[in-house]
Specification:
The chain contains 1 helix and 3 strands. By secondary structure, the protein is an alpha+beta fold.
Length: 85
């Protein structure tokens, strides 16, 4: 499914400094588009050989800002692989 996002500020994320050692190769303490952090986490998981369905990052290890509400077609949906359990 292709979701067209409205123009505006994209959601941003950053890895908290105290958890940087758990995510080698990912810049900690720097704000970046949340999609970019997600791609980096996915790449790290693939390099580690993690099986599908494993949570890539503890949400407590990151901070988020910006963005808006989820698009109407995604509200109420469980969109993470781990949510299907």
């Amino acid at each position: 499914m292709v979701v067209h996002r409205p123009a505006g500020r994209d959601r941003q994320a950053r890895l908290k400094l105290q958890y940087a050692h758990l995510y080698p190769g990912i810049a900690a303490g720097e704000w970046m588009p949340a999609w970019l952090l997600a791609e980096q986490l996915l790449g790290l998981a693939e390099r580690r050989g993690l099986p599908p369905g494993v949570r890539l990052c503890d949400p407590a290890h990151c901070e988020f800002r910006g963005g808006g509400l989820r698009p109407l077609e995604l509200r109420g949906l469980r969109t993470r692989r781990a949510d299907s359990r």
